[in-house]
């Protein structure tokens, strides 16, 4: 049966007996769920069907039949532990498999809930998605390894309003059009915590969203396609995520390279509306083309405290323009770009049928040229007084709202800034961030502060940067994760191998290598045998102990003057050593305050006094 014939059956609301077998009817996708597009009914068959609550450990489920699920869950709340699921067999119908999951290894629908812990799910057919939640189906995955090798075979997937929660998975897809985290018509909700998700094929991003997708503390890789694709009125949110993308092949109508792609295809797979991309505390690296590309849709892009890297010298930060989708002359983009406590670099290009409203706040720094050719239909910039724009080329705006009325936070660098047809003045000097300077641009670091030299040294050595373009936040507490990261950077960021024993140190987190290094070098053994407590505040006792151990636990002699450092305390020798070395003189002449939280200014001062001397 052709795809056209299938679509006619779906549109007419008939029961689609696509497999030639009688099976359980699917539910219509709830119209109020995330995603978009319509859906109707379809038939399912399963090599194994679970219709009521079941518990199993070590079971094996398999199917080699086209259009058949290896494991079909249609009712109850079941828990399966350390099971093996394998699926082969190509599905030529396509839409039934991609919209409803008819050829998936695991399909959950009809109000059923499946808890899958550990084990492995493997597929090698076409249109053989691994784990699929459809309609009112709900899947909870934890610690499972998922592998697909065929084309159009996603790793974890929702459609029709399905719900899928994933924790610490290892997902790898090799085929074309096979996103590691995938959704299709009718969307749903995907929430990912931890794990690694890798896609290799053409048209196979790490995430393809026609749903609401949130990823926390995870690693995403795409070696051929875009890193993230959002279609229509849907969303992706990344929190503390490492995303690396190598977009080296075009797919379908696409003729540009990019890392984050927001668009409306007009296929009916996603409702028309605003696409949302949000990233916080994440590391996003693009190797080819622009970091962001928007066409034929409205979009909101929110970026906060991320590390953004574009390894393509010719690539820009953002491109908004007409593409191959939609009606010519009406298929540009309408974008809101919000940078909050964010450093970003790269040009922004906006064509004549597109608009951009851009804001910089909370000490953000943007380096680049905006709308150099003056083509944008509309382009407005809002700038907080503590944020900075450094021009790298002539730029053209239709509106500027700068809280600094003198524009001293706009560094022209010899270029012209035109606003609503008139050239405006700005800072004629050169912007010099704190890194590498013998002075600091931080407004909250006084030249008379005891930690002034330490802050300059720490910035120059790459040990830490500010909390914003113009702020260091000297009194802000330092966490244990930040403290060992400072130490690791001060040691030259030595390469590490092996692993750690701490369950609360996420793979791919910014401090993971530092923790491995610190544990292997005896600097820390954690707060327990299995926890490091990365988000706990680092105390003064802990930081001097870390420093003493990093120095090789030198023998000490003499004493200290502090009445609050008890004999035989684990930090007694480190305190004696730190006093002798001039690292600290205490909080008063008779107190060290070992349990007090160590601030950012105190930690860089301790490091500076020990290492710079």
Instruction: Give the overall pLDDT as a whole number.
Output: 89
Distance between the termini: 78 Å
Overall spatial form: flat
Compute the CA-based radius of gyration. 28 Å
The helicity comes to 10-25%
Question: What portion of residues belong to β-strands?
Answer: 25-35%
Low-confidence stretches: 1-34, 36-40, 434-439
- Helix segment tally: 8
Q: How many beta strands in the DSSP annotation?
A: 43
- How would you characterize the largest beta sheet? 22 strands, parallel
Structural category: mainly beta
Describe the 3D structure.
- This protein is mostly beta strands and 613 residues long.
- 13% of the residues lie in helices and 32% in strands.
- It has eight helices and 43 strands.
- The protein has a 22-stranded parallel β-sheet that branches.
- Helix 6 packs across helix 7 and helix 6 (540-550) packs parallel to helix 8.
- The longest helix is centred in the last third of the chain and has 13 residues, at 600-612.
- The radius of gyration is 28 Å and the shape is flat.
- The model is unreliable at 1-34, 36-40 and 434-439 (pLDDT under 50).
């Amino acid at each position: 049966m052709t795809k056209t014939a299938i679509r006619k059956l779906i549109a007419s609301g008939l029961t689609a007996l696509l497999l030639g077998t009688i099976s359980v009817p699917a539910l219509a996708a709830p119209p109020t769920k995330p995603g978009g597009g319509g859906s109707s009914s379809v038939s399912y068959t399963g090599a194994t069907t679970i219709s009521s609550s079941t518990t199993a450990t070590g079971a094996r489920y398999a199917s080699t039949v086209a259009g058949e699920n290896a494991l079909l869950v249609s009712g109850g709340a079941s828990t399966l532990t350390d099971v093996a699921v394998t699926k082969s067999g190509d599905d030529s119908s396509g839409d039934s498999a991609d919209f409803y999951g008819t050829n998936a290894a695991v399909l959950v629908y009809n109000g059923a809930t499946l808890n899958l812990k550990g084990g492995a799910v493997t597929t090698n057919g076409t249109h053989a998605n691994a784990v699929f939640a459809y309609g009112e189906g709900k899947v909870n995955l934890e610690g499972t390894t998922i592998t697909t090798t065929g084309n159009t075979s996603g790793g974890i997937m929702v459609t029709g309003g399905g719900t899928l929660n994933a924790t610490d998975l290892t997902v790898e897809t090799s085929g074309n059009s096979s996103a590691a985290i995938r959704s299709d018509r009718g969307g749903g909700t995907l929430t990912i915590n931890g794990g690694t998700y890798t896609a290799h094929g053409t048209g196979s991003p790490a995430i393809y969203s026609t749903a609401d997708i949130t990823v926390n503390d995870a690693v995403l890789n795409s070696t051929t396609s875009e890193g993230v694709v959002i279609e229509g009125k849907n969303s992706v949110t990344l929190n503390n995520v490492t995303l690396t993308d190598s977009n080296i092949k075009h797919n379908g109508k696409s003729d540009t390279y990019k890392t984050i792609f927001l668009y409306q295809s007009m296929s009916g797979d996603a409702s028309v509306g605003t696409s949302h991309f949000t990233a916080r505390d994440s590391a996003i690296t693009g190797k080819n083309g622009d970091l962001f590309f928007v066409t034929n849709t409205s979009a909101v892009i929110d970026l906060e405290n991320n590390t953004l890297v574009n390894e393509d010298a010719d690539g820009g930060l953002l491109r908004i323009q007409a593409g191959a989708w939609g009606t010519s002359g009406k298929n540009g983009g309408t974008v809101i770009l919000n940078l909050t406590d964010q450093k970003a670099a790269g040009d922004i290009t906006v064509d004549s049928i597109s608009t951009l409203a851009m804001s910089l706040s909370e000490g953000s720094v943007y380096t680049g040229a905006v709308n150099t050719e003056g083509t944008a239909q509309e382009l407005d910039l809002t700038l907080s007084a503590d944020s900075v724009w450094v021009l790298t080329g002539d730029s053209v705006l239709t509106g500027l709202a700068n809280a600094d009325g003198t524009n001293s936070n706009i560094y022209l660098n010899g270029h012209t800034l035109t606003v609503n047809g008139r050239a405006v003045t700005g800072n004629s000097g050169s912007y010099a961030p704190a890194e590498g300077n013998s002075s600091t641009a931080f407004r909250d670091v006084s030249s008379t502060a005891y930690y002034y030299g330490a802050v300059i040294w720490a910035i120059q050595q790459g040990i830490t940067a500010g909390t914003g373009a113009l702020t260091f936040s000297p009194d802000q507490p330092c966490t244990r994760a930040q403290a060992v990261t400072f130490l690791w950077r001060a040691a030259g960021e030595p390469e590490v191998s092996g692993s750690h024993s701490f369950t609360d140190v996420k793979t791919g987190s910014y401090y993971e290598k530092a923790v491995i290094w610190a544990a292997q070098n005896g600097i820390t053994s954690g707060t327990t045998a299995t926890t490091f407590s990365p988000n706990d505040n680092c105390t003064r006792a802990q930081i001097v102990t870390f420093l003493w151990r990093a120095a090789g636990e030198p023998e000490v002699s003499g004493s200290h003057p502090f009445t609050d450092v008890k004999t035989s305390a684990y930090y007694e020798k480190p305190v004696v050593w730190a006093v002798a070395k001039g690292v600290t003189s205490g909080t008063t002449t008779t107190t060290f305050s070992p349990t007090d939280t160590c601030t950012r200014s105190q930690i860089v001062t301790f490091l500076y006094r020990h290492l710079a001397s």
